[in-house]
Design brief:
Elements (H helix, E strand, L loop, with lengths): L13 H11 L2 E6 L4 H6 L2 E3 L1 H10 L4 E5 L2 H10 L4 E3 L8 H4 L3 H10 L3 E6 L4 H5 L3 E3 L4 H5 L7 E5 L2 H11 L4 E2 L12 H10 L5 E3 L5 H4 L4 E2 L2 H10 L4 E5 L5 H7 L4 E4 L20 H10 L8 H18 L12
Parallel strand pairs: 1-2, 1-3, 3-4, 5-6, 5-7, 7-8, 9-10, 9-11, 11-12
Helix pairs in contact: 1-14, 3-4, 4-15
Bound molecules: 1,3-dihydroxyacetonephosphate and iron/sulfur cluster (SF4).
Length: 329
């Protein structure tokens, strides 16, 4: 269960207080699609990792309240150093970040001096600083296709996203063996049972899923890409193989359609709810906005080193990149 703040907030009208404080402090609230519905609904902007990074780089607010996980809030701080960046729960990490300790990544890079390092944004600021280019799930394909074919590449920390890109683009890459515990939890057996019950429903999957899930998908893309697919697809039912909180946005955008979350191993477990994203609650959001804490702080040398690879991503992903540019398989 998510730890609640120790403070007794009974009697506090959280929504009214958050609305008062966001104006008083000139704060922008950025929310990822995997946040609880009540947090998505009060966010100024809800988006995927690339869109949220762009918003964080562009905003003229004094305070960025990042309702997502720590690497996302760190990205906001790297791109907007003069802003105060707060995160409702500083323990909101990510299994991909945990799988890639900077010292081991540095040694891996040093063992392969002829490779450049392309890193998924789901990593620490230290790993960003050790990387040449950052990618998100919605920008990876466009960025990878701009790198000369004969350039050797290390891709980390998500072996499933890296493997998917390597298969799709016919491009060998050295993969760091990290996984997202949420997308790893989907069951192929249960997915096929669900598909048998809804034979006309397409399957949309996030590329963080293992190949045994992605290979059954009609559409593969980032959270924004999956949302766009849900709006545009001709049918009325979609099976969704990503963190189920995104279904909230789908239901808001196209209420007449039916969205079914892909199951985990026991058929209906909650194992594909991201435990890190779920650490953020309305109570903690209120407290962090009121106290402007916990705050992301970063040593300037590290920030500048990490910013280089993020800036490359923003440049290479700019132009006509589509939200779901991984597209249909
Ligand atoms: P996107 O929203 O960029 O698809 O990322 C998904 C995710 O797992 C974020 O942690
Ligand atoms: Fe990390 Fe997976 Fe949670 Fe995204 S869904 S924050 S990749 S653990």
């Amino acid at each position: 269960m998510t730890a609640q703040p120790r403070e007794n907030l009974a009697g506090v009208d959280l929504l009214a207080e958050i609305n008062r404080l966001r104006k008083e402090k000139n704060a922008v609230i950025l929310g990822h699609y995997y946040q609880r519905p009540e947090i998505q609904d009060l966010s100024d902007f809800v988006g995927d990792s690339l869109e949220l990074s762009r918003k964080a780089a562009e905003t003229d607010a004094d305070v960025i309240v990042f309702c997502g996980v720590r690497f996302m809030a760190e990205t906001a701080k790297i791109l907007s150093p003069d802003k105060i960046v707060v995160l409702p729960d500083m323990d909101a990490g990510c299994s991909l970040e945990d799988s890639c300790p900077p010292d081991r990544f540095k040694a891996f890079r040093e063992a392969h001096p002829d490779h450049i390092a392309l890193s998924y944004i789901n990593c620490s600021a230290e790993v960003k600083a050790l990387s040449d280019i950052i990618v998100t799930s919605s920008s990876a394909e466009k960025i990878l296709s701009q790198i000369p074919k004969d350039q050797k590449i290390i891709f980390g920390p998500d072996k499933h996203l890296g493997g998917y890109l390597a298969r799709k683009l016919g491009r060998e890459m050295l993969l760091w063996p990290g996984v997202c515990i949420v997308h790893e939890a989907f069951s192929e057996t249960e997915l096929l049972k669900l598909k048998a019950e809804h034979p006309d429903a397409p399957i949309a999957a996030h590329p963080e899923c293992p190949p045994f899930i992605v290979d059954h998908a009609d559409y593969v893309g980032s959270t924004s890409g999956i949302l766009d697919y849900a709006k545009a697809m001709p049918g009325d039912t979609l099976i969704v193989a990503t963190e189920p909180h995104i279904i909230h946005q789908m239901q808001k955008s196209v209420p007449a359609k039916t969205f079914i979350g892909a199951p985990g191993a026991d058929g209906n477990c909650n194992c594909n709810i991201c435990p890190y994203m779920a650490m953020n609650t309305l109570e903690k959001l209120y407290i962090c906005l009121r106290d402007l804490s916990p705050r992301i702080e970063m040593e300037e040398g590290l920030r500048l080193a990490a910013k280089k690879s993020l800036d490359r991503m923003l440049e290479m992903a700019s132009g006509t990149v589509g939200k779901g540019d991984l597209g249909n398989r």
